[in-house]
Amino acid sequence: MAMTASELEAYIREAFPDAQIAIDDLAGDGDHYACTVVSEAFRGVSRVKQHQMVYNALQGHMGGKLHALALKTSAP
Question: Residue 53: which region, alpha, beta or left (left: phi > 0; alpha: psi -120 to 50)?
């Protein structure tokens, strides 16, 4: 079962309420997304840690309901 873009956004929004989020379904299958997340929570945090924070927000769905996520993160 694939994850919808709105489900993906809801997980991210729950963890980062202030975030600006842009999601593109790369293959049209709900399984491969590109996502840009801009949040104040990322200020002063390494890019690797930022990505880990987003993966944690997905509550274990990465690799299950969500197969691939091309992720860009930054602070405003």
Answer: alpha
* Burial class of residue 2 (count of CB atoms within 10 Å of its CB; 0-12, 13-18, 19+): middle
> How many CA atoms, within 13 angstroms, populate the side-chain half-sphere of residue 19?
25
For residue 41, give Cα distances in angstroms to 1, 9, 24, 75. Answer: 30, 16, 22, 7
Output the pTM of the full model: 0.90
Q: Which residues contact 30 (CB under 8 A, 6 or more apart)?
A: 2, 3, 4, 5
Q: Please write the tens of the pLDDT for every residue from 20-52.
A: 999 999 988 778 899 999 999 999 999 999 999
